[in-house]
Amino acid sequence: MELLELPPGSPRLDTEEFRQFMQDCFPLLRNSDGSWKCSRASRLRELDERLITLLQARPRRPCVFMDVGMGNGTSTLDTIRRLERVGLKIQTIATDRNLVAYVVRLNRQLDLLAEVNGHILMIEGPGWSFSPVCNRWDYLTGKFLFKKGITAWARRRLASRGLPLTPPTGGLGGGQNSLSGPFLLVTPELKARDDVVIRQDDILEPLPADLAGVADVVRIANVLRPDRFSPAQLRQIAANLRQRCREGALLLVGRHLGREGEDHKRGYTFFEAVRGGGFQVLERVGRGSEVERYFVDPGAVGPG
Q1: Backbone dihedral region for residue 237 (phi beyond 0: left; psi -120 to 50: alpha; all else: beta)
Q2: What predicted TM-score, i.e. pTM, was given to this entire model?
Q3: Nearest Cα residue to 120 out of 146, 97, 153
Q4: Among 20-34, 75-89, 104-118, whose mean pLDDT is lowest?
Q5: Are residues 94 and 73 in contact, defined by beta-carbon separation less than 8 angstroms?
Q6: Which residue segments constitute the domains of the chain, with CATH numbers given?
Q7: In 3D, which of 18, 37, 23, 8 has the Cα closest to residue 222?
């Protein structure tokens, strides 16, 4: 877990060790709200290319791109680089509900990576690490018994030290229950950029005043799920996102899970922020977003 502490300019960032860490670590991290910290390069390539086409056709090119629910920021960085390659110079605001975590040393053999509320993201021992989340393979092999047992013990030990976790006065020591952090769970390449602002942001909370009306492009990809958010919450999120947009801004809303046989990238809707509030559907990729109806007025007609 010491790789979480690497500064943006560290030579270790350009090593196979770090690339393997980015590939293996982040996909295991499931946030306390049920979302995953995973975010992969090239995942949104097709959408980026379509976004570029739309932007180049506009008389006024955007200057502010807001990526909401960015995960670990890898796909955010990927999009920025694609926009730059075609000469689109932008400022980026990258946000997520869960950005930081602490490393808690329970004993000489066991470390935890946990959110401030005590939710465990990863457990690491000598030569091994795992997410507390059990998958089908864990149940087939019986590994879930080990994982659940260690996780239950770790949660009791973590709760005994006191929650919420608070920043320590010293560094990670050798004693039991020592705490280090907070660590920003974002790819260092994104943190190193002067043209990127990274900030914590909950789309169900009132909009911070400094985010109102600033964005020319807003993206929220693979976040909004009908089984996680109620219809009232989805309408609230739509209003929250509209408040971030300048008039005429583009909003890209992505499908969380494709239907059977359908790739994730085949379910997105591009909206345009219209005068007086609200959105209209500009175009769809694949079947469009499954929460599209919450972003348009009742009776609004989009493309077929």
Answers
A1: alpha
A2: 0.83
A3: 153
A4: 20-34
A5: yes
A6: 36-99+185-295 (3.40.50.150), 100-184 (no CATH)
A7: 37
